[in-house]
Amino acid sequence: MRIGHEYFSEIIDNLKRNRLRTFLTGFAVAWGIIFLVILLSIGVGLNRGISKSANAGDTEPNYGIYFGVWMTNLPYQGYPAGRWLFLAESQFAQLQEMVPAIEDITPRFRSWNKITYASQVTEGSVKGIGANYFGHFETRVKMLAGRSINGNDVYNREKTLLISSSDALKLFGTDQYGEALGKIVSVDNVSFTVVGVYEAQQNQSASYMPSSTFTMIDSNDQRIDGGYIYAPTIRSKKDFEAFDKELLKALSSILSFSPDDDQAMYSYSNYVNNEQYNKVVNYFYLFLWIVGLSTLLIGIVGVSNIMLVTVRERYKEIGIRKALGAKPRDILAMIMVESLLITAVAGAIGLVIAVGLVALGDYLVTAYHIGEFSIMGETIHLFDTPVLSPQMALGILVVMIIAGIVAGYTPARRAIRISAIEAMRD
Questions:
Q1: Claim to verify: residue 395 and residue 354 sit in the same structural domain
Q2: Each residue of 385-400: pLDDT tens digit?
Q3: Which residues form the MacB-like periplasmic core domain (predicted)?
């Protein structure tokens, strides 16, 4: 049987004879596609919002490990439980020697300070960092003007400062960030020169200075409660658990607390936690696909039912076709193509409508800042712009094709079993 213009005209004429039934069936399929697309787009929006606020799902690997010490939970060698632990700066080099996986380590210097320029004041977190901090631990920083803190700053104890774009705007009243370079600001009455401005993020607007200079604004530098470790070989949960035990053993030796006191130390791996986060996201998307496909299944059942009714109504016609020499594959193709046509057209209409709704949602989220709220001056995103990715669109198209085949298969198999003699006798 040749598939041409007359062939499709015949199928379309058959659908026109049952317009209401065809419309209702197509509507169920279109609604299933709309629901699936919107559901997946909302999932993407939630993922993007949480990722923005939590720095999860980085596009670049971040092998930084944050660690810290606090109160002991067990007595040890005459020391009572409840002892607060602190590290001296010199002990970080010792820790690196004891744990081979550590390629770089830097103390965590941080405090809450006022930064003043003329009569303008801003207040926030100030961190003392090493030269490799941004390359190893904060990989998402985007420089807008100037430079970061470098090795020369650290070695010479330079009074240089890297500030966020939000602080630059507050202090200097301009978004021409190059104008901030070279300005002298005061950090708790100590003068610093602004050498760079970076783009502020939702959870990142701290100011940065050389770790060696940090003692000028905070004399408690010998009471360090943690630091940053760069360990690029730690790339799985299993690796991290083994590393964590080794780190605990080394710290317990340096600070004289029980190696069994795992409450005295904490650690956090960016890479491992991002891997775990991505697994959760994948399971979440799988759940959304299941829910969306369940709705689409209603439409597919409708298509299958209408095709069964069509086969019954065309019982005699199919028998005559077989008597005139139509092969089983011709009958099978006729029913399958009709099923695919209903599914494809209705699905395409649903997809177009869904894309329009996603675009509208994108506009509303951006224009009205939906899903945003502020805590202590920081903007937190629980939801970001919904997006229909090319991968999702391709997946939905594949689903539509499979759905059309599944919907038409059972009616088509029933059609080819019709006896020509019995059909013409009825």
A1: yes
A2: 888 888 888 888 888 8
A3: 22-241
Total domain count, the chain: 2
Distance CA 248, CA 308 (A): 68
**Nearest-angstrom CA–CA distance, 22 and 10:** 15
Output the pTM of the full model.
0.63
**Contact assessment for residue 215 and residue 251, using Cβ atoms and an 8 Å cutoff:** no
Q: How far is CA 290 from the centre of its chain?
A: 19
Look at residues 229, 245, 271 and tell me which one is the last residue of a structural domain: 271
Find out whether 404 and 410 touch, Cβ atoms under 8 Å: no
> HSE on the CB side for 158, CA within 13 Å?
19
Greatest mean pLDDT among 70-74, 301-305, 398-402 lies in: 70-74
- 239, 271, 303: which is the final residue of a domain? 271
Model pLDDT for residues 267-287, shown as the tens digit of each residue: 988 778 777 778 888 899 899
Residue at 379: amino acid letter: T
How far is 206 from 204, CA to CA, in rounded Å?
A: 6
Domain membership of residue 137 as a residue range: 64-271
- Distance CA(424)–CA(422), nearest Å, equals 6
**Do residue 256 and residue 404 come from a single domain?**
no
Q: Tell me, yes or no, whether 265 and 319 share the same domain.
A: no
Alpha carbons within 13 angstroms on the beta-carbon side of residue 182 total 2
Residues 194, 215 within the same domain: yes
Q: How many residues does the chain have?
A: 426
